[in-house]
Amino acid sequence: MKVIKTIFDEVKVIVPSVFEDNRGFFMESYHDGYLKKFGIDNQFVQDNHSLSSETGTLRGLHYQLSPQSQAKLIRVIKGSIWDVVVDIRKNSPYFGEWYALELSEQNRKQLFIPKGFAHGFCTLEDKTEVIYKVDDYYSKELERGIAWNDQNLAIEWPVTNPVLSKKDQHHPPISKAELDEPVRGGIAVE
Question: Which residues are identified as catalytic?
Answer without folding.
Answer: 62, 132
